[in-house]
Amino acid sequence: MKDRSSLLKKLLYAILLPAILLVLWEALSRGGIISPHILPSPSRVFLRWIDYALPHEPYDAGKTHFVAWLFSGEMPHDVLASSMRVLGGFVIGALPALVLGLLMGASTFIYHLFNPLIQILRPIPPIAYIPLAILWFGLGNPPAFFLISLGAFFPVLMNTISGVRHVDRLLIRAARNLGASGHTLFLRIILPAAMPYILTGLRVGIGVAFIVVIVAEMIAVNSGLGYRILEAREFLWSDKIIAGMITIGLLGLAIDTAMSRINHYLLRWHSGHD
Amino acid sequence: MNNTENMQAPHVIIKNVDKVFSSGDKEVIALKEINLTIYNGEFVAILGPSGCGKSTLLNAIAGFSLPTSGRVYANGAEVTRPGPDRGMVFQEYALFPWMTVAENIAFGLEIKKLPKQIIKEKVDALLAKLQLLDFRDRFPKDLSGGMKQRVAIARVLALDPPMMLMDEPFGALDALTRRTMQDELLRIWMELKKTVIFVTHGIEESIYLADRVVVMTYRPGTIKQIVPVELSRPREVSSPRFIYLQKEITSLVMEEQMRFRNEEIRDSGGNVSARDESEQVP
User: Fold this and answer.
1) Which of A252, A262, B46, B69 has the most C-beta neighbours closer than 10 Å?
2) Does some domain include residue A170?
3) How far away is chain A from the Cα of B97, in angstroms, using its nearest Cα?
4) ipTM of this model?
């Protein structure tokens, strides 16, 4: 009984501040104190969000499948377009980063060969590559993928390197004592031992990729959530801008939650997890 | 003793072994002129204060860190690298945390590329022998210290090495668990007749377990005295002979402890040198 009431209390506290802000915002907007063009009321944003999410054509059983119709609205298309870019760019950036990171972590020679170059390139924000990306790849998906993969590359690389370098020497001794050497030692001991670092890198990497995708869509392509909110600004649809931002936030949350679930499963052996 | 007939065959021969660690401009002589022969099936304890080089000696036998001069022979060959013929049990367990108990035990067998069925049978047998059957699919983080050390012992035994090297294996356990594990180890040793080289700083532990106790001096690490323990097993820690040996070995160790304290006081104006030799092993 007590558990339930304390849970209820927690929920109440969690809702309290957002609810007050929403009511205040709604009141300010309706009372005409703030122009609805500058800041539309939450209820208008919500209706616009629903409108953005729902299909525009009426349902016609003869023409399309119901599920296909349900996701035929503008928002599902934008979400899909942005997600595919994030995933594609992430894979393009993270895979070579993982391989290079493992090599740099394992070999001092390769580390010293690559490290100076990486230290020079790493502080340049991926967004600073936009002019070059457009010059090299024109407009469309190629520069977007380039920028996103760049954003994912460095976090994965840096974490992989330190993961391999921080492998407990004792575990390597134990493995060698049991007869492991060469690639067996690497694949079965060093790689899994570095996994907590690598997964942290992947999670940060996909977070950066998600930031970059929004920017890239504002500049290089004609679809996706980033494009949509910039388009809405041109029509002065402030409610749609906010509806789009909320969608971006929800997609980001979904990606991070999925990543964290995967990490949690893969690291179920780790003492930090219960 | 039931294995006197094997006692003639030398299993480990340590010949004129010196080990020098140099850090910066300072050289530390960890081992000096060590000569020791350990026989087949023998249980030998290496006893000494921290920093006496006992772990360094064990690492030389294991092949983790080769002597600066002198030679170590084990299983009829000179030691040049680590190998599964000299199974090592570490104080910190060194279990692979991403592998379950069964996977940890199977690891060495998989390296040897044995057929899956045989690996499974061996792992099952070892789980039963070390009373780990209920923990087969647990990860090490969910085990107590004693359980972890059981897994580490099973992992080494899986490869059926002729000898086991143990580096203060029960040092991190509470007193009750330690005694249980000591009895367990003795049971396994008597059953499997493996040579055991057991590094410890526990005087009582060394007398309780070993056929011979090798007492080492503090830096440079040399062999101060080898004390044979001619008590039948199971040993009674309150027997007069046990207590006598305990007193004798305690006074040997205390001499070294005092020397070490005096040196530390003398050095305390300058650099206090790293005492844990394991930190200096690359």
Assistant:
1) B46
2) yes
3) 6
4) 0.86
